[in-house]
Amino acid sequence: MFEKNYVLPTDAVIVQAAKDYRRASTPQIREVLKNFFLSEWFCALTDMDGKKLYNRLERERLEKRKRKR
Question: Residue 67 domain-assigned?
Fold first, then answer.
């Protein structure tokens, strides 16, 4: 029971970081978030593969940019 309460806040941090990456208005903000996704801290928060998540978010960003042209 307590484990679930512990997991939810960590999931919220990751979900918010992904949202922030999608909304980032500068390369500098994206770089900070990329560093988070690839960090040891990210690995401590989740079993998710941060590199895969980052690559997915970057692909989404590039595809969205491409569609705007």
Answer: yes
Nearest to 56 by CA among 26, 40, 33: 33
Tell me whether residue 61 is in a domain. Answer: yes
User: What are the CA-CA distances from residue 67 to residues 8, 48, 61, 63 (Å)?
Assistant: 34, 29, 10, 6
Q: Which pLDDT value is given to residue 5?
A: 62
Which structural domain range is residue 43 located in? 27-69
Look at residue 14 and tell me if it is in a domain: no
Report how many domains make up the chain.
Answer: 1
Question: In this structure, are residues 42 and 36 in contact, taking their beta carbons and an 8 Å threshold?
Answer: yes
Chain segment 24-33, per-residue pLDDT in tens? 999 999 999 9
